[in-house]
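quick one, 142 residues, struct below
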Amino acid sequence: MTSDWTERRREAAEEHADRLRRRQEAESARAQAMLDEFTAAALRAELPTARLVVTGYGGRGRATSDIEGWYVRGDQSMGVGTDGKLYVLSAPLGVLDRLRGIHLTPIAPPLVLGAGGRDGDSIDLADALERVLPGWRDDGES
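---
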């Protein structure tokens, strides 16, 4: 009896985890489509880009990244590359990172930047992109 209950609980937990993963993947797919649309609009508008800079944890140092793009948060903690990918711009930096620069790896984009953070730290992705390039959406949905 105990093993049946344990097995049912395990299966329920696996199903819950699978639904959560599918929901997160769907959210990321919608966010990526939005980033792709924004990037195309920004490039068409010839919005100036910058080499994205990474800040060390606790404000300890800065390092130039290998990505050109736009900052999407006022504190420059996230950026969108001209490749349409989203990047976190804070990391533990060593001396060599600060001297040579740092390679960035894109993250799965969320629809809300900073969700689950401190009050006032989160912003809808669409709103963050609108701040960078007002009116970027062709369909008027901003």
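Residues 2-132 form one domain.
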